[in-house]
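forwarding from the other thread:

> can someone predict this with 2'-deoxycytidine-5'-monophosphate?

sure thing
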Amino acid sequence: MSTADSTAQTGSLVIAVDGTSGSGKSSTSRGVADRLGLRYLDTGAMFRAMTWWLLREGIDVGDTAAVAAAAGRPVIESGTDPLAPTITVDGIDVSVEIRGDDVNAAVSPVSAVPEVRARLLDLQREAIGSGGIVVEGRDIGSVVWPQAEVKVYLSADPDARAQRRTAEQGGTDVASTQQSLLERDRIDSGRATAPLTMAEGAVHVDSTHLSLAEVIDRIVELAQERRA
Ligand code: DC
């Protein structure tokens, strides 16, 4: 890790960053972790890894009972260096594959299956351990780690999110990217178990008109205020 501002004061800190798809959670969380000398956990990557594995095994991701029965099988491991996060399934590096269209289309329904959430919840809590970490997802401040010292709910207008996500992926079809983001938001917010929601005590940061550096600064300030 390069530029730790205040590692001594941030040792056991947990920063929860929740929000909609494409709101900038990953770049923001990695930047905050790097600035504060913290680890970084991308819980979305864990749901994506589970989905990739189910698809590879030929399991029908629309069959809730089949998904539930298989959820305990893959070994999913997350590397928590914010400058080089990794994700493996049964020892295979899947960091590129989990961003594909097939996973994008299936990950929200898979994430709604309670047995999938229970399995990954255990792994997430184990990775958080004694803290010193920025964790991004949908239910971190509400379910995974409600005791987090800093909780952020990050949002941005759908137009801005679709533009950013399309540019990141080197694509041009902003309209279809936006449709896919909004469909995932709809399922993630509407599911019965641990839906996307603004957790109690969370600070809402709307990144529509902010640069990445400004969003990172805002969260670093919040962390420093909580530790003061
Ligand atoms: O953050 P992301 O787009 O990589 O997340 C992919 C999907 O994973 C998202 O559509 C919903 C699910 N997810 C979740 O249900 N809970 C989390 N804590 C993180 C992600």
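Residues 3-220 form a domain with the Rossmann fold fold (CATH 3.40.50.300). thats all i got for now
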